[in-house]
Design a protein that fits this description.
Strand content: 5-15%
Number of strands: 10
Mean pLDDT: 93
Shape: globular
Distance between the termini: 17 Å
Number of helices: 15
CATH superfamily of the largest domain: Divalent-metal-dependent TIM barrel enzymes
Order of helices and strands: HEHHEHHEHEEHEEHEHHEHEHHHH
Strand order of the largest sheet: 8-6-4-3-2-1-10-9
Largest sheet: 8 strands, parallel
Low-confidence stretches: 1-22
CATH topology of the largest domain: TIM Barrel
CATH architecture of the largest domain: Alpha-Beta Barrel
CATH class of the largest domain: Alpha Beta
Length: about 400
Amino acid sequence: MNSHGLVQGPHDHQVFEPGMGVAIAAERFQPTKQDRFTFGLWTVGNRGRDPFGASVRPTLAPGTAVDRLAKLGAYGVTLHDNDLVPIDATPDERAAIVREFQRVLAECDMRVPMVTVNLFYDPVFKDGALTSSVPAIRRYAGDKAKAAIDLGNDLGAETFVLWGGREGSEVDAAKNPLDAMAWYRDGVNALTEHILDNGYSMRIAMEAKPNEPRGDIYLATTGAMLAFIATLDHPELVGVNPEIAHEKMAGLNPYHSVAQALDAGKLFHIDLNDQKPGRFDQDLRFASDDPKGAFYVVKLLEEGGYQGPRHFDAHAYRTEDVDGVFEFARGCMRTYLILKDKVDRFAQDPEIQGLLQSIRARSQAVDPFDRAAWGTVGYAYEQLDQLVMELLLGVR
């Protein structure tokens, strides 16, 4: 207990008391541009529509989204081509929209580190875009993606994310997946050629998802994407954009998928959110369902050399109004910073570090190797996991 009568734990960095704890914590975990937090226009612009109900929120203008995110401390925004420019806009209309958006970005000191393309919403893509069995649709999809890359270049984007939302099937007899992979490869090769021909400083990050909106989506996991990238004409220009929710939908551990991408030198971008395994694509607020899993992802990003944006691809609950949407955005950033603080505490906690040192020392036992003895060794992982839980629960 300190001189003000407040209980203070041995690892506390702040003093909390009734009526002021929230304000102090908010100041402590206030995001800055240096944190490089970004949101898709489609995330805060999500109107709460679902297959069973109409929209519950009004359309949010891109400029309004930029302004409100900037005031929360975000670094930038990302967008699909049609989040900003309507699909049927004329060249003059496109130019005017882009000029106005650039003005808003400059006024708010915001960046656009990534753009993507919508190859899933329009009815023409109902049986795929780059993998459509109709050559004219594949050409249209490729041209649309190239135009989105051009838009990204105009806005200063460094990364172009390619999510194959309709690249899949429900009826396997309808399309040979070997043909589909060949068409997909041709499409991505054409996009890298477009980048090279125009001298753009941009890379492509492919995003995996196992299902929804198709019954099965081609290249369903980050590992599958990495294998596919190795077959491309310019694999050095193509990496991955793992999404936490998509990996969980496949029953995988996102921490391991992100690590595999980092190990391959292919983590070009990342989508942070959360997901209950076995459910539809929920895009929950970051770490809201699985804080321990999110802790390890943050630890990996902060200690593994990733230099890109911390991008949130999630949306607020359908119950929220517009103010609630920006509470959701604030919560994503605040939780990341809290978990980043926990990563620092993990590295400084003497009991955790002492146990890790003991575990590592045991693993370096000298020869001769004794098979029977090693079969009886305890690894102390229960104790280690409990210490991590106590750290995350705030008692260490």
